[in-house]
Description:
Keywords: Endoplasmic reticulum, Secreted, Signal. By secondary structure, the chain is mostly helical.
Amino acid sequence: AMEKSxxxxxxxxxxxSCALAKDAGKKDTxxxxxxxxxxQTLSRGWGDQLIWTQTYEEALFRSKHSNKPLMIIHHLDxxxxxxxxxxxxxxxxxxxxxxxxxxxxxxxxxxxxxNLSPDxxxxxxxxxxxxxxxxxxxxxxxxxxxxxxxxxxxxxxxYSNMQKALKLMKTEL
Length: 173
């Protein structure tokens, strides 16, 4: 069983590496901003003072070894829903404070890990993964057709889901 999980983890890493290598070729170059902004960081505007991981593998590793839950935000730069949620997320002081207790990753590309799209590939979607590397399919937003979608009006639900992710982790580990 151990070898099987190592093998599936290895295959996952290979698949993700291939996907990343493929995406590396097509970088977005348009940077249009009205007001001068800080250089683009891994936060991509979701919280510049927060520590963000660069890759899914790094995020999983950090989550496992720091015993912090992982919060993955799938979004796209040119999606108005993603942009609206990002603004609400970045401006919500309590969320920004609570986010410090998570390993954070925001992705502007799809991963090959099917666990990260349990009900389809759409943006924005936010998933929580606990340090045992289990996707928390029980922590969802309010839409039955897009379980992990949040809109700016759902920001308080997202906040309580972040609290739930921390609480569940503590009671189950």
